[in-house]
Amino acid sequence: MAGSGSDLKAQLIRDILKYEAVKFGSFTLKSGVVSPIYMDIRVCVSHPKFLTAIAEAVEQTLKAANLRFDHLCGVPYTALPIATCISTKTHQPMLMRRKEAKAYGTKQIIEGKYRAGDKVLVIEDIVTSGSSILETVKVLENAGLTVTDAIVLIDREQGGKGYLEERGINLHPVLKLSEIIDRLEVENLIQADVAQRSREFIRTVKPSLTPAAVGVGERASFEGRARSAKHPVSAKLLKFVNKKKTNLCVAIDVETTAELLELTSKVAPYVCAVKTHVDQLSDFVYEKVIPELKRLSEEHSFLLFEDRKFGDIGETVRAQYGGGVFKISEWADIVTVHGVPGAGVIQGLKSAASEKNACIIVAEMSSAGALTDDSYKKACASMVESNADFVIGTVSQSRVVKSPEFIQFTPGVNFELSGDGKGQQYVPPEVAISDRGADIVIVGRGVTRNGDPGDRARIYSERAWEAYEKATGN
Ligand code: S5P
């Protein structure tokens, strides 16, 4: 397209006014709020030149952001023609989300060809709270697709960008509403007082997310996440989670092999993983512990999670992981590692691992006075993201890594106690899941030292499952 980026923007802003995609006055919105500004991009379908200009501006923003994706998807309905124009021009394939799949019975909720794990770039006309984008993201993620970026023609700057970012979606606006107002005022196309009232409105009115959009992105369904899982160990874990409808991992912290195996067989039907500290066993003999643990895990579909919390230089952890009496990499699907030593610890573990092994970074601890502050968590998050071929998530008390590709395990869960007198701090499973972003809750003594462990595991798994379902909006 001819003209510089800023000329193009200036012309687009004039067109927006000319075609009445923005109007100034006094408008009562659906919510009852009276707004000095009203926007409606749908008018573009009656003005092909205007639609073309919009599509070109969106395409330019897309190119400038250097985004990589497999499909474009316009949020229905206004962004559909915009996405279509870009798709036909750039030959990038499109997906279409239906809003009314149920009424059509057998029809797909997403039209178009795709594979689980494909990356989708969402296109939207206007963002206020970001709810419409999030509702579309939810449908896409439930189908196993991944969304990390969205392009919007106009960001109304009323909080949507922040809501989207909190949920792992980067928003790229072509225009900000304040830019439109400023430009129209400079060009004397609107009066100063109109501009001022509009600015004041944007600044003070911040709509919240719709109920359908709350929790989206933070919490895609386990089915969708299983379909898009990239690492074989997360795929296996999420398969078990869905099959058994449990997001409970029981920590069996005991000192004898007999207790470990007995408790494991009791909780087995209710867990997606059993977490061990095999170095606590006073009578550990590999042949007496590991084959039986493996047999139980295969029979009852759960992962073996050795909570070794490696924390040394790469070469040392390599030897600790693959060797010694425990030979952890031979049998543990998952191990924990501290981020303290830096990236080398991951490299060391990787060198003793196969594709059947994965690790989880302990990014934040449940214990009182833990030194895992924000900058530490951030550093751990980037270690997770840059080692996705081996690291499948975090042990943490908050959503340290936003992308639903990574799994958050949260210990310090107990619905009867608030602590153990030795620094451990507890919250009930509902709080771990809804407030702290847990995917899988880790419960130790709440299950193993309290009445019938099998029944306790059932109760914890039901409560954790229900809380997760609620968080996804199901
Ligand atoms: O921050 C943490 C990290 C872990 S892995 N806090 C924890 O408590 N854990 C582990 O979770 C801990 O090692 C123990 O095995 C389990 C919690 O056990 P509980 O009996 O306090 O529920």
UniProtKB/TrEMBL annotation:
Q: What is the lineage of its organism?
A: Eukaryota, Metazoa, Ecdysozoa, Arthropoda, Chelicerata
Residues of the active site are: 307 (for ompdecase activity), 309 (for ompdecase activity), 312 (for ompdecase activity)
Name the SMART domains for this protein: OMPdecase
Which residues are the signal sequence here? none
Q: Example GO biological process term?
A: 'de novo' UMP biosynthetic process
Hey, which pathway is this one from? Pyrimidine metabolism; UMP biosynthesis via de novo pathway; UMP from orotate: step 1/2; Pyrimidine metabolism; UMP biosynthesis via de novo pathway; UMP from orotate: step 2/2
Q: Which family does it belong to?
A: In the C-terminal section; belongs to the OMP decarboxylase family.
Q: Where does substrate bind?
A: 253, 275, 366, 424, 444-445
Q: Which PROSITE patterns match?
A: OMPDECASE
Cite the EC number.
Answer: 2.4.2.10, 4.1.1.23
Orotidine 5'-phosphate decarboxylase domain boundaries? 247-460
Name assigned to this protein: Uridine 5'-monophosphate synthase
- Gene name? LOC100900766
Q: Which GO terms describe its molecular function?
A: orotate phosphoribosyltransferase activity; orotidine-5'-phosphate decarboxylase activity
Tell me one Pfam family matched here. OMPdecase
- Keywords of the record: Decarboxylase, Glycosyltransferase, Lyase, Multifunctional enzyme, Pyrimidine biosynthesis, Transferase
